[in-house]
Amino acid sequence: MKKLYFIPGSQDLYGAECLRQVAEDCARMVAFFNEKLGDTIAFELLPTVETSRICVEDMRRAMDDDDCVGVITWMHTFSPAKMWIKGLQLLRKPLLHLHTQANEKLPYDEIDMDFMNLNQAAHGDREYGFILAKLHIPHEVVAGYYEHEDVLAGIRRFAQVAKAIDYSYHLRVATFGNNMRDVAVTDGNRLEAEIKFGWEIKYWGIGEIARLADAVTEVEADAKLKEYTDKYIMDTDNLAAVREQAKYEIAFEKFMAKNECQAFTDTFQDLFGMNQLPGIAAQNLMAKGVGFGPEGDYKISAFSAVLMKMAEGRKGATGFIEDYTYDLTPGQELELASHMLEVPASFAATQPKIQVHPLGIGNKADPARLVFDSVTGDGIQVTLIDLGDHFRIICADIELVKVPHPMPKLPVAQIMYRHKPNFRIGTAAWCYAGGAHHSVVSTALTREDIAMFAHLTGTELIVIGDDTTEADLRKI
Ligand code: MN
Asked: What is the DSSP string of 262-320?
């Protein structure tokens, strides 16, 4: 279980009784968080910072513990912030400044100077906030009484984002084949991606998968086919093509397990030794949280894995999507977003059908794929581009809608959405921002999640939504 360390601040000026009370209040607070948020993350109390030395020891512990994904700090009393400098300089994990109190209401009849000395977050947290600003440490602030629902929601969000950042830092991406020839936005600097987000992007030839797929036993293939037919409707007579995909998926699973990768890419331009482009194999793996990018898009492969981790435990679908074509009926503009075939099965609103159809490119056999209608509702579309001197995240609010008319001749999973605030501004903003045609769509995550991730990783963020205006387009 991943955890957050809770580090309270005080000092030795107020005497042993005060420090005992600080520790007691914090233990109660941590127990409350474990009770309310324990399904997401564990909380552990560290010694109260009374001196610079204790702060350094606490932060060293947070850094040395691989299960620790972040730190929460709170100044119960005044805690002179010079004591925090050296410790905070060691911390390189997400930081939440919880601006709260042990008490919800002021005890007007009882309040005296002892109470004031003990409960002075309004004083101590401002001193502490100053040193965070002075040190330029990216962090989140959640303000309010710690038992209130909005505060708990803020801490839960932080925990989910911190877990995603930790996951990102340890993420390994297997790229089979390289970037699609001539495509710009999928390319970038892999070295910078590892420095910035921790992604280890490793190249292998797709022949590795072809060889492993050849070695898959019929018993293994039968088991994978049963997994398919348990979940999906077999809507083809070409069982050999589906079996081929089942072998691909087993091969990817074995390869990624052996090489400790959680995401992968392929490209239809390099399928040496393969009979088909991976279709259902990729779709089924994505539905299990495995990151995927087509055409060698390692950024979206890694980013989708990170965002699926962030969305863990929430309702809704999250995964890779590709922008394709529009319905430009005035006032009813919609986008049809369906990749050639690799749409994650997690977006299925209906039980997916397994079908086999020609692909049209790649000069390979007809690939088996899952065909389904998508979930609907509010969501976000997020992408990440590499501008050479920095990365940029673009996050647009969208509404996933039901397909207005059947498309019987389009044999892929179909996802349609409406842009916000409207087609003209929403898509123009995306284009001005340099947004890719590969992105992650989510009905589980919100702009606030992405904003926290961008802030804590120091990444530029452009948001598009109902609050985006014509005038904003000129500021991008
Ligand atoms: Mn593409």
From this structure: SEEE--TT--TT-SS--SHHHHHHHTTT-EEESTT-HHHHHHHHHHHHHTTTSSS-EEE
Q: How many Å apart are CA 215 and CA 207, to the nearest integer?
A: 12
pTM recorded for the entire structure = 0.97
The pLDDT of residue 360 is 80
Interval 204-226 mean pLDDT: 98
| CATH entry 3.30.70.920 includes domain 3-167 | no
Distance from the CA of 292 to the center of ligand 1, in angstroms?
Answer: 12
Residue 319 CA to ligand 1 centre (angstroms): 14
Tell me the CA end-to-end span of the chain in Å, nearest whole number: 41
Distance 90 CA to ligand 1 centre (A): 41
- Where helices occur in 137-216 by DSSP H, the ranges are 149-169, 190-197, 207-214
Comparing CA positions, the residue from 264, 413, 406 lying closest to residue 340 is 413
Rounded CA-CA distance 158/150 in Å is 12
Q: Which amino acid, residue 203?
A: Y
Q: Give percent of the chain with pLDDT exceeding 70.
A: 100
CATH tag, 172-475: 3.20.14
User: Torsion angle of alpha carbons 234, 237, 242, 244, nearest 10°?
Assistant: 160
Note the pLDDT of residue 263: 98
CA of 322 to the centre of ligand 1 (A): 6
Cα of 269 from ligand 1 centre, angstroms:
12
Is the pLDDT at 334 greater than 90, yes or no? yes
Centre of ligand 1 from the C-alpha of residue 212, in Å:
26
Integer angstrom CA distances of residue 395 from 97, 339, 420, 435, 441? 25, 20, 11, 9, 10
pLDDT in tens, 258-316: 999 999 999 999 999 999 999 999 999 999 999 999 999 999 999 999 999 999 999 99
Q: Would you kindly state where each structural domain of the chain is located, as residue ranges?
A: 3-167, 172-475
Say whether pLDDT at 362 is over 90.
Answer: no
pLDDT at 69 over 90: yes
